[in-house]
């Protein structure tokens, strides 16, 4: 995960920041057996993305912007 942009002002409340992250989702086998790695399905990526979002919401009070 890499932070790629931070934004304050505009439609973002004064006491908040908008953060943009770059996430890469990979098959768990990619590290230990790269020759057996496969492309993840949309369903798998969506589930992983939902987990990341839920953790950010619980730990930091984060919310997704539309």
Secondary structure: elements and pairs:
Layout: E1 2-7, E2 18-22, H1 29-32, H2 42-60
Antiparallel strand pairs: 1-2
Q: With helices defined by DSSP (H or I, 4 residues minimum), what is the helix count? A: 2
Alpha-carbon distance between the termini?
20 Å
Characterize the main sheet: 2 strands, antiparallel
Structural class: alpha+beta
Give me the strand/helix succession.
EEHH
Number of domains: 1
Quantity of strands, as a count: 2
Low-confidence stretches: none
Q: Strand percentage, roughly?
A: 15-25%
Shape by Cα distribution: elongated
State the helicity in percent bands.
25-40%
Mean pLDDT: 94
Return Rg in Å.
15 Å
The spatial strand order of the largest sheet comes to: 1-2
Can you give a write-up of this model?
The protein has helices at residues 29-32, 42-60; strands spanning 2-7, 18-22. The protein has 66 residues and is of the alpha+beta class. The chain has a two-stranded antiparallel sheet with strand order 1-2. It is elongated. The mean pLDDT is 94.
